[in-house]
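Many introductory courses stop at the sequence. We go one step further.
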Amino acid sequence: MQNVKKIVLAYSGGLDTSAIIPWLKENYGAEVVAFAADVGQGDEELEGLHDKAIASGASECYIVDLKEEFVRDYIFPTVTTGAVYEGEYLLGTSMARPVIAKAQVEIARKVGADALCHGCTGKGNDQVRFESTFAALAPDLRVIAPWREWDMVSREDLLDYLASRDIKTSASATKIYSRDANAWHISHEGGELEDPWQQPSKQVWTMTTDPEDAPDKAEYIQLSFEQGKLVKVNDTALSPYQALVKLNTLAGAHGVGRIDIVENRLVGMKSRGCYETPGGTVLMKAYKALETMVLDKAAIKYREQLGLEFSHVMYDGRWFTALNDALLAGAASFAQKVTGDIVVKLYKGQATVTQRRSVNSLYSEDFATFGADDVYDQKHAEGFIRLFSLSSRIEALKAQSK
């Protein structure tokens, strides 16, 4: 544990990272610089963070505003891929990790640190996401993961450790849930959720109204896109982050965006989590609805395959890889056509697309109508079907001949 002089810690102010600061100083004899990322988790989590870090023993605490970068450079590109992990998870925690880890490396370079540290446990996905980013951007810096080194195993151990050193913390042994919030979502784990047979209690949910208590009157919102980018909400031009905040507020009030899933972690175990992604749910539905207007069948099929692959790339922490770049480039080429407006109805936990229009639309009422038309000769379908099914016809004829 020697030969380390300055460590930059990804700091949240929670119980784990509050204990990590003094532990690093005691066990590595190094200066500890705290780094916190503002990715839209809210002022309540950031309030007093600087002073708390210093009180825990950090020499400095950098709080970096990453909100716009996070939404613009990580969330919006992911939306264009259509990535949804295992059919339901909208990758909220996964998307935030590369932008946070990248900024942590930048702070390390700024202060001349020779090591990076995170508070991820040895059971989770985040250790892989952080360390994969470190490997890609700062392979020369040592990585320290206290949960894989120290002998503390519980919240009680951490609380006792801090109490013995007279370091104050707002955490307690009765904390029920483990939560992670950012501009895209909030996740909930622990408590009764560790039993898959137990229904989540009302106190689990914090970002959305209970659908049963949501307004009895539906609300309609319009999303406007230009080349795959959300540029307006209800005809008001907004920055990427501002647009997402607006959607979170509108959709959250109607109970949109709740899921309760059991997912496969990268490390091999299954975990149960409840996620709230109100604005993201609306954005993903609107984007897909606009895609269906402007991309043909083959393009949609390929984009869906791309989205499936990208969901695993993102979930597994492989943002800074050649595969990630290639998949994003493919999605970006499709996104050039995604320009137009979508109207979404919000009602009792549901987000439903009701209207769509685009200058690039491939939909033609003249061709699709059930009424009389002058552009489509239905007799042509016979020849098409005979050719389309020719291989099946040949196979059947050969079987009959035997």
